[in-house]
Structures are given as C-alpha cells and as structure tokens.
Structure of Chitin-binding type-4 domain-containing protein:
Amino acid sequence: MFSKLNLGVLVTLFATSVYSHMAMVQPCPRLSPNNPLCPAGDPVDYNIKSPIGTSSAASQPLCKTDKKTSKNVETWTAGSTVKVKFRPDGAAHSGGHCQFALSYDGGKTFVVIKDVLKYCFFNGQKYGNTAEVLSYDIQLPSNLPSSNSAVFAWTWINASGNREYYMNCADVAIKGVNGGSYTGKKLLIANYGPGTPVVAEFNGNYESGISLLNSRPNITVNGSGGSSPAAGGGTPASSSSSIAMRATTKTSSAIKASTATCACPCK
C-alpha cells in the first residue's frame, strides 16, 4: 500500500511538472525538444515550459541559454507579419502579461515589438489554465535593422500562481534596413530573483504590473549589436547582461544532461 501510494504521488507530481506552464513552439526556441538545431554543447530542456526564475531566485539565464542554435530557425522581413505559436498542453495561469521582443546583441538587450497585456492566452479576463489563444500575429516594424544574428524572445508574467518569469528565445535573421536602427520599449524583466521588480499575483486585479510596463524606458538598437537609451527615453536602459550573469553559474534541474539530440522540427 505504501509503495502504491507513493507511486501515485510521484505520478501526479510528474504530470503536474510536464503539463504545466506555457512554451513557444513557433519559431522553434532554443533547447526545445522540438528543435532539431540544439545549441552546441547544450542538452535538450525537457521542461521547456518551466519558468527561468521566480521572485526569489533566477534558475536559468535569459533565453534559458546564451548559446545560439546551429543556424537560424526563421528568416523574417521587416514590415511583414509573422505568427508566433504556443504549445497546447500547457497551463495558462489565468493569463498575464506577454512581451515579444528582439535582441541585436546576442540576448543581452531586448527591445519590445509587441505587448499582449493582462489577458495573454485568453480573449478576456478569465480564471483558469486552459488557454483560449495559442497563436499571435506579430507585425514586424518596417524600420527594423537587418541582422543575421537576431534573437526573438517571448516573455510572460503569469496572472495566477507563483510569481514567475517565463522566457523562450529563437534565433532569427531579419531582412530590414541595412545600417538602420530601431527605437522601442526596453523589455521588462520581473519576478527574476533579487534586484528585479516583483509583479504581485493578480487575484482579479489585472492592473498588477501595468505601472512597471508603462514606465519601461525607450532604447535604440542597431543591426551591429549596439544599444543606447533613446533621447527623452527616461531612465537609462541598462544592459540585461548583469541580470543574466546571475543565473548562468547556477545548475538548473530543468535541463537534464542527455546525449539525446533534438527531435523534429516544430509543428
């Protein structure tokens, strides 16, 4: 009886860890079991849906890894519309704030190109874990700089549950303005250990965190990887590299050492 009981508990815990949270599936993110282009030397992250940190600690670096995939998974044209899709087997934690962003310096600094605030994964305020929306069309700004080594990021601050920060990244090429620059809001990083702001559980108040999002400074990025605070952009935008460095030295239980290669292209 004891062994059967404990087995049942373990099965329940395993199921909860696997079928929980959310993850991007298109474009194929780094370390995804569905991505055939694993970053060199990195194992598959079979918990790709898990957060990279909580309000108390950062458990993984930004993007889950700072290593690129062996080649870009997408080539996008500035001004076009791209589709971002999410896995259907996750838990949407009553929505929350999603930011979609691009980096031109290898994932150190991100500029936001689209927000889905308050009700991400839902059509309106709703308490529950079953997502209603699993894809978003992202209109790429027409003046994005060209780059063969851009990083696209999806981040999520969940409305209900533990105070967590989710992030998946994909390596993409951008066909845009040669030598150009783009100015937009700096990515908000919250619930990612000491030194980052905490967005409280919403508990029905979907204004939670909105003041932080509204106060994001403007930054200007260019195709060569440079970034700077935009003129009149308010508080200077510091690089995210110092935040990421805290987690790179930690061993994440979510990334399991494995000789397995990534499985098949994302669908």
